Amino acid sequence: MYNITELFIECMYERNVDRTINLILHGHKLERNNRNRILSTDVELICNHLRNKSNIVALQLCYNSIGDEGATKLAEFLKDCRSIKYLDLRMNGIGAEGVKSFLDVAEYLTIKSLNLAGNKIGKQGGIYISELIKVNEELQHIDLAETDQTSTSIAYLLSAINEKSTLKNFNLSRVVPHPGKEFDVDNFIDLLSRVLSMNSTLCELHLQKIHLTCHQMDQLCDGLRWMRSLEMLDLSSNLIGDEGSKYLSEYLIKKPPLKALNLSHNRIANRGADSLSRSLLYSDVKYLDLSFNQIKDGGIQFLLFSIPKYENKRLKLLFLRGNEIKNQETLAVLQTLIESKIINSETCDLMVYQAPGDQTLSLAHNQTVDIFREEYYSVSKEYDNFKQRSIREKNARKHMHFVSSWPMPLSIIPEFGTPFLD
Length: 422
Known about the structure:
LRR-containing_regulator, 14 helices, alpha/beta, disordered C terminus, repeat, 14 strands
């Protein structure tokens, strides 16, 4: 393994079309290139190298080991560096003290996106982040997925969003801490619902794997009904089921501005699919993920028949893989919709084919569509990075983008504009 050098750092830049640059030092990729992951002792070298880079806008240091010491050095550097807007520090062993170092320089920070997912900052770290939200008016995206938050810290965070916030994208996925630590999902959803009912800035909300049940879905929808800014709702890997789908469909019938809905891994069966299919005709949803549920042929047919036929109302992305689709009639319906271009074959994760000499239809996974899938949970990586990037660049203007090679919300990336508009 080789250590990080200035020459190596110079080779790790990505150039943007507006002549700005991103520095990508992804820990996994460094190891594959026979380099050591970034440690706290390397942060000073990186900061010194960046001092003369006035066009640096994004710094990705995810999956390294900078810890609290490295985070403190980075915060001191960002106090004087006004050009960096996007900071990715996922999985870096950062604790509450590291977060406090950013709060100490909050009035000088100009970052728009801060990703701390996977760092066990705990309750105190969450409280520090709530203060950062209040002080820093530049911040538009914050990711606190899997950071061991508690009921207390979440109350502070939601209070900060309610009191004073410019946040457009908020991720509280996988907040459930280790067994024995305090967390009350009912109180969390009740408080969140009240905050959402008064919020006018949030465009994206991620609540993956928080043990959300059908009863709590009813509470959440009470707050969602009042929101006029939310365009993306991510509820994947929960326990919504058919009853929760019914509450969600009642919300969608009210024609909210929602453009993207992720309900994968939610134990939704035919009754839930039927409820959702009735509301699709009334909603503006363009991205729909119902993959890896328990929907059988009847429910899939309900969904397929309910897809709007008018071109300006059609789904831009559709994920149905992982359900129980076996009937030839269902496959024939899907094939017909694809051939008639009501469903775009390039943005649906299923494809129908016939083997030579075989009259029966078969179903296959369209792997190229996985590049559009959100990457908080692992996505199939059969294609190498170069091929994925080539496909992504080819489709960048052609399709609505939901995820990019840079892990930040596309709603705040200027060259992509607002991601969910036609």
